[in-house]
Fold this protein.
Amino acid sequence: MNKRILLVEDEPGLVMTLSDRLASEGYSVESVYDGNAGLLRALNENFDLILLDVMLPQRNGFDVCRDLRRHNNQTPVMMLTARGQIIDKVLGLKLGADDYLAKPFEMIELLARVEALLRRAPAEQMPVLSAESYQFGPVQVDYRRAEVRRAGARVELSALEYRLLRYFIDHRGETLSRDTLLNEVWGYNALVSTRTVDVHVAWLRQKIETHARHPEYILTVHGLGYKFVG
Ligand code: CA
C-alpha cells in the first residue's frame, strides 16, 4: 500500500510541484487548500503524514496542528514555515508538529524528511514491551494507548515527544548523546542540528518534570548528552 500524504497548502504552484514529485516517489497525495478542509480530512481519514503550511485561509497551520492533537490524532505533521521564522518553528513544535521545513526548500531535503518521518514506527507499532505501562514519579506512560499522565492528568505529547520519552525509558540509566538521540529517534541526523534535540528535550521536560529548570528525570550530562533516571 502506498503511504498516504495529506498536503495542506494554498499556493497552487507549490501544490502542483509537491504533488507531482511525491507521486513520482510512489506516495499517494491528497491536497486541500485551506485549514478547515485540512483539519476535516485529517480527522476523518487515515494519513501516514501531513504536510501543513502555516499561512492558510480560514484556519492557520498552527491551529490545525493543535486541534489535531487535541483530538488525539497522532499523525506525523511536518510544518512548512516561512523562511527564517524561528518563532514559527518553536511554536509549531510546541503545538505538536514533528518537524518543520522553511520555505523555500530543496525538494531533496523535503523528500528525505518525509521518508524519515514515515520510517519511524508510529507509537502503536513500536516494539511491544512486556509491561503495558511505566511509572516514574507522578508520571504514568500507558504503552497500549500511547498516553502519558502526570498526577492523573493527561499530558499532551507530540508523536515525536512520545517517541523520545519511550527511548529514554527504554534506555534508562544510559548516557545518551545528542547524535544517538537524533539517529534513533529522528532517524536523519545529517539534516537537523543537534540543537533540535535540546529543543525537544526542553519541551518534554516542561510537560513531565515538576520543575523543568531543575529536572529530576531527564538529566543533562554536561558535554555528553542526556540521561533518563526515572
Ligand atoms: Ca500559504
Remarks:
- Residues 10-11, 53, 55-56 surround calcium ion (CB under 6 Å).
- Residues 123-130 have pLDDT under 50 and may be disordered.
